[in-house]
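Checklist before submission:
- one chain only
- standard amino acids only
- sequence pasted in full

Submission:
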Amino acid sequence: MKILLAVAAIVAAFSVPANSSPVAVASQSNAWQVDGGHSSVVFKVKHANASWFYGMFTNVAGTIVFDAAKPESSTVSIEIDAESVQTRDEKRDQHLRGPDFFDCKQFPKITFASTAWKKAGEGFEVAGDLELHGVKKSITATVTSINGGNFEATS
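Returned file contents:
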């Protein structure tokens, strides 16, 4: 379970192509779908207290509703397919998908839903609930806008 909490220190970059049109989500004209083909969810975990190893999830989806004039009303909702974990070692990936770690059969999705946005310097602090392995934790991510339409979040 300790490694699962370490994964809460994920780095997620979710892209909204600058030339894309907003999609209709809950009657919001400033809503976009996360571009799964250009988005990454990356994590790092200290292995044997000696070195870091990195992994990623390759299947991510979600919705961003962003209001530049009123950022506190913005929202983000991200869903990650836990089965899509990759660490460049298939044996380790299978172990991570099993009951010792992500237990993908019982907990197939990892989710993040924002609860608050606030302006912070050139970017924002986005607070929300990360649910992983059936455990929900509140985290805060620093979000910056890249190229006027893409967002990068670190936690």
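Reviewer check: Residues 1-27 have pLDDT under 50 and may be disordered.
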